[in-house]
Design a protein that fits this description.
six-stranded antiparallel sheet; 47 strands; 6% helix; mainly beta; 2 helices; 2 domains; Methylamine Dehydrogenase, Chain H
């Protein structure tokens, strides 16, 4: 008995020693990703093997037939990858003193959300030249004469925007290629003489031939001819297959001398789409979704690749330690790529990849925030709800470095639903709770700590925004004040006081018909709204036109000063979904501000579409005045023409001149002389007119 007890104690002691040594070994060794980490965490990989193990676990866990995963060795004999990657970066140095305001001319700029944080646009100016991207073309145009001094055309792609900084232009474009390949011969099954379907005579004809049709198992049809004297023969047929490649190009041009324009830097991100971009003091930040592994991968093709002219002409694999896992949306799987580079130097770009994707971004002078949505189903209540994950990336030596995440309920509408102010991140969301019997809509403003590490801790929240069933249509932050518009049948415009982040309060509200989709602060006392007028008939609410509204927001309750309406049930302004279509410009010493917006007008009486740029004056004293509307459309004897490519989508102003830009032309008007048309220049000769959707020749 004592011997048995002694043996048990010895075994227990040995087992404890083994466990202790095992724990010590685990703590002293490098942690590896052998299982799927928490979907709520963020961390990086130490090797491509760890990344591959993670992907294997993910595709195995989520494989429901929609994913394709082929298991093979990553580092084969022909693989050139190593765990350190091939890209080494150094902190770029650049001159951040460049300021367009030092130019002798005054001009309008892109409607950026945050002062000092530039957003890309397709029309830019430095006061002397106008830079235009129009589908496949890039133009440099003299602002005084509208002469085209430089043109560049893409063969396999199209432009999506650009930046202008200190004599250099950053062109952003999509590139795509289709290639046709000749495959192997199609091997048909041997012809079985007993398996025939005879067409025509069932007996041999005069020439002894019988035409038979063989139907192989793959539904291919093969016609052969047989005779008494010959063997059965088949035609040798080949199949063709096509490959499609795509990616993002970022090309930096030195345009300081239009007679000698040079490419100083080029980047290409394979299998990627741009989510959004920003530029601060000459450093461009690209946020991209890469879906190369969305359906799985083959061999070692699971690492995102890019090309950087500062390194080589070959594709570069993102280093393993620069690839991170993070929360995802449970529906899509790929890489979120983040890249930064300086316009003024030739240093390599800084690139990181995160397993996941994003839908929206917001960027301040200190941080970049990405948004991830996640839907959840509660089996007990049989209801669905949404959660938004906020990932904060700090700007460290011009590089985006992950720092913290926050979680809120609901989803933001767009980038204007987010803001950072004095170390506090503010986000307004609309949440839907669906069940079998009811749908509940809630609108909430959340305030989170934007300085904490790891977790963006919640500071406070303000709910109860909107009437029953209303969702958020517009949000705008202006310092410690926020404006929120909700809508279902009427438009409550709320003014919120956020001066005490721990106790946000609702100052007041204004109810009116219609809704503002975009809000633009003129100053601390005036707010401009661009949206749609609406009327309610019983249980139905319908839109009746475009409205431009000026509000006095000096007091607690916003007060409507004036509405300008453009009638038409289907009339709309692109500003409601594209804030860069809005332009404002205050001439030197003026007590007013010019505002221009594109508007599509629809008349149901004549089924007549027209399109113009509406120009207003907003007086700082608190008045709104319609000035004129400018158009590229050609007046026809019939009211049915719809000239889409003549639609003005951008307006810029330089000194006392206003320029309207469409895909087909650019026109210059004199604002000081009753908006007289001074010059018009064609951009695209091959454009189309549309008549009820059918292409016809332009006259």
């Amino acid at each position: 008995m004592n011997k048995m007890l002694s043996m048990k104690r010895t075994l227990v002691f040995l087992l404890m020693m083994v466990m202790t040594l095992g724990l010590f070994a685990c703590n002293s060794a490098k942690t590896t990703v052998s299982t799927l980490p928490s979907p709520d965490s963020v961390g990086n990989f130490q090797s491509y093997d760890e990344l591959k193990t993670y992907l294997e676990g993910y595709f195995t866990q989520t494989n429901d037939g929609s994913y394709l995963f082929r298991n093979s060795d990553m580092l084969g004999a022909e693989s050139a990858m190593d765990d350190s990657g091939v890209l080494t970066t150094t902190t770029p140095s650049y001159n951040d003193s460049a300021d367009q305001s030092e130019d002798s001319k005054t001009y309008s700029e892109t409607n950026n959300q945050v002062e000092g944080v530039k957003e890309s646009d397709r029309i830019l100016t430095d006061g002397y030249s106008i830079y235009v991207t129009s589908n496949t073309h890039f133009y440099i145009i003299d602002a005084d004469t509208l002469e085209i001094v430089f043109t560049q055309e893409l063969e396999n792609g199209y432009y999506i925007g650009m930046y202008l900084y200190d004599g250099r232009v950053v062109l952003l474009s999509y590139e795509y290629t289709y290639e046709e390949h000749l495959g192997d011969p199609i091997i048909y099954p041997e012809v079985d003489p007993d398996f025939t379907v005879t067409s025509g005579a069932s007996e041999p004809g005069e020439d002894g031939d019988v035409t038979t049709t063989i139907i192989p198992s793959d539904d291919e049809t093969l016609t052969t001819t047989t005779s008494d004297d010959t063997e059965t023969k088949t035609d040798e047929t080949y199949y063709y297959y096509y490959t499609y490649t795509y990616g993002i190009n970022a090309t930096v041009l030195d345009v300081s001398d239009t007679d000698n324009i040079e490419v100083v830097k080029s980047l290409y991100f394979d299998s990627s789409y741009i989510v959004d971009t920003r530029m601060i003091d000459g450093t461009v930040y690209l946020v991209m979704d890469n879906y190369a592994i969305y359906y799985g991968y083959e061999g070692d093709n699971f690492v995102p690749q890019y090309r950087d002219s500062s390194v080589s002409d070959d594709l570069i694999n993102v280093g393993a330690s620069d690839i991170y896992y993070m929360p995802n949306d449970n529906y899509s799987f790929g890489y979120l790529l983040m890249a930064s580079f300086n316009v003024d130097d030739t240093e390599p770009a800084k690139v990181k990849a995160y397993l996941g994707s994003t839908y929206q971004i917001y960027m301040s002078l200190n941080n970049l925030y990405t948004i991830i949505y996640r839907y959840a189903y509660d089996e007990e209540t049989l209801s669905y709800s949404q959660t938004t994950y906020i990932l904060r990336f700090g700007i460290v030596n011009d590089e985006l470095v992950y720092q913290a995440q926050g979680i809120v309920t609901g989803m933001p509408l767009n980038q204007f639903s987010m803001d950072e102010y004095e170390g506090v991140f503010r986000i307004a969301t609309t949440g839907y709770d669906w069940s079998e019997s009811t749908t509940t809509v809630t609108n909430t403003l959340f305030l989170l700590d934007a300085t904490s590490i790891d977790q963006m801790t919640a500071i406070s929240s303000l709910g109860g925004l909107g009437k029953t069933g209303e969702r958020i249509y517009a949000v705008r932050f202006n310092g410690d004040i926020a404006y929120v518009v909700t809508f279902l049948s009427i438009d409550p415009l709320y003014k919120l006081d956020l001066s005490d982040p721990e106790h946000p309060v609702k100052d007041g509200e204004l109810e009116e018909e219609g809704v503002s989709d975009y809000l633009h602060p003129i100053n601390d006392s005036l707010l401009l709204g661009i949206g749609r007028q609406a009327e309610t008939d019983g249980e139905w609410t319908y839109f009746t036109g475009v409205k431009v509204s000026l509000y006095n927001v000096d007091g607690d309750d916003p007060v409507l000063i004036e509405n300008y309406l453009v009638e038409g049930e289907y009339s709309y302004s692109p500003v409601t979904y594209d804030h860069k279509a809005f332009v404002s410009y205050q001439p030197t010493g003026a007590d007013f501000m010019y505002v221009a917006i594109p508007v599509f007008e629809y008349s149901d009486a004549y089924y007549h579409y027209s399109q113009s740029a509406y120009v207003f004056k907003v007086y700082l004293s608190g008045d709104l005045e319609f000035i004129t509307k400018l158009t590229h459309y050609v007046e026809n004897s019939e009211d049915y023409w719809y000239q889409y490519f003549d639609s003005i989508d951008r307006v810029i102003m330089i000194e006392d001149k206003i320029y309207t830009v469409s895909y087909t032309k650019i026109q210059m008007y004199d604002m000081s002389n009753d908006f007289e048309l001074l010059q018009s220049t064609m951009l695209e000769e091959n454009y189309y007119y549309y008549y009820w959707g059918f292409e016809v020749d332009a006259e």
